[in-house]
Each structure stands twice: as structure tokens, then as C-alpha cells.
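Below is a typical protein record.
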Amino acid sequence: MTFVFAGIAQAQELKLDEVIEKHVNAIGKQEARGLIKNRLITGVNEFNSKLPVVTGGGKAIVVSDKDNFFFLLSLNSKEYPYEKIGYFKDKVSLPFVTAGARSPLGAFLADHSKLLDSGLFMGSMTARWILLDPTRYGGRMVLGGTRKIDGRKAYVIEFYPADGASSEFTLRLFIDAESFNHIRSEYRHDISPRQDTFGQLGRQAGAKLELIEDYSDFRTVEGITAPYSYKCKFGSSSQSGTFEYSWSIKVAGYFYNQNLAADFYTFDAK
């Protein structure tokens, strides 16, 4: 009788540059990626808020190139008619959605503009995605081990912006360990309570803010693999209460190298 002993070797974990290289190649071959000058995404969106209860939905359009990002949702809600998020030639553009007020998403991005000027928001769906050119925006990345996302192993990339973001604010990107698709981004800001200041009574309460972007339903079209389902969840917790909001987009199609007008990237009336 012959006995066969099978040894199970622990697979060696990848290094940061290897994870990024595999992720970029999972998007598409270098030849295919190099042909893309801009990308336009169309689809439908849905918005939900628990407190207060608000729902809406309509069309979605996202347009980007290396230097610009244009995000527009029509929400068909009197309280929340649209969402406009832009980054146009080194400037953040976040118009008010009602008189003098931004949405919770717009307000968070206004306070954390690094998500826009470092090519983080909406991840690999845009041409500004930070991992397409990790050194372009400065800062530092480290591999923070692995974590399970919906039961799947994912590599965790921690990003530290060049301007020295507060230790209270963390930015993490998640790359699926099998497909190497970008499946999640997490941005957390834990605001510590602050001591009294002259003229104010009581401590200034702290708060916990969290923005999570999830990506799924990856498809390959014209040699480029991209998510066709996007969900963005924002939550805040403080003495004022707990609030939760979500925005989702079901992509109808990606369109590359569109002939855009010279003044396309603006929210100003044309």
C-alpha cells in the first residue's frame, strides 16, 4: 500500500506594488487602457434616507478624464432635486441642492475634498482613479493586510494624503484577492469631543462620520472591466442622533472617448 502525503503550502502574501499592478491589469491590458481619453457613464439612480424619510431617483451621468470629474444625479424629489459633484481643472465644485444647503454627501465631500482632488471618489469607475497612477497625487500608501468583504478576502490599501490628513480621518481601499477588482472604499472620520472655549457652555460633542462605496457586477466591455453596480452609504452618529443615507447607481453603459464640448466640465448654465 502506498501512502501519499500532500503538503499544503501557505501562499505568500503579495506586496503593495504587486496588488496595485494586478488590480490595474484586471481593469484591462495596457493597450486598452491607453486608448481611453475620457469615459461617460449613464444609468439610473436611487436615493434613500431613513431620518428624515426621503426617497428619490432618476437618471445618472458620470463623466471623467484625467483632469476632470462630473457627477450628476436627478432625484425627482422636492426636498432633494439633484446631486452635483464636480472636480474641474484643480477646483472642487459642489453646488447647493437647496437654498444655501448641501446634501449630506455634498457636505461630507466639501469637508473632505481630498476624496475628489486625489481621484478617490467613485474609484475605478472614473479616469481619475488614484491606483491608475499612484504617485500622481502624492501621499503614501501601505498595505494593511487583508479583510473579508461579503465573505471574500480582500487586500486593504491604506492611503495617507500628502497634506498630512488628521489621524482621526482614515482612508481605505479594498481590492478583491481573487479578481483584483476594486470592490470597496471606506472613509471614516471620528471627531473627538473638544474642550470648552471662552464664551461657550459645555463640551463640544464629538461625532462619527462614515462614507462607504461598494462596487459590484463587474463586466468586461471593449477590453475594460468595470463595475455596473455602485452603492454609496453615508452615516453620521452624534448627540444629535444617528442618520443614514444611501445612493445607488445601476449602470446602463460605459462610453469611451466622447467628443465633449470645450466647456462641458462645469455646472454653470451654458
